[in-house]
Amino acid sequence: MLVATNNQSPLLEVRNLKTYFYTEDGVVHAVDGVDFYVNSGEVLGIVGESGCGKSVTSLSIMRLISQPGKIEAGEILFEGKDLVKATEEEMMKIRGNRVSMIFQQPQSALNPVFRAGDQISEVLNIHQDFGKEAGQKRAVELLKLVGIPEPESRAQSFPHELSGGMAQRVMIAMALACVPDLLIADEPTTALDVTIQAQILDLMRDMRTQLGSAMILITHDLGVIAEMADRVAVMYAGEIVEQSPVASLFDEPLHPYTKGLIGSIPVLGEVRERLDVIPGSVPNLVNLPTGCRFAPRCMARVEHNLSICADKRPELVEVSEGHKVRCWLYQDSGQHVAPIKLGNKS
Question: Which one of 62, 67, 117, 209 has the minimum C-beta count within 10 Å?
Answer without folding.
Answer: 67
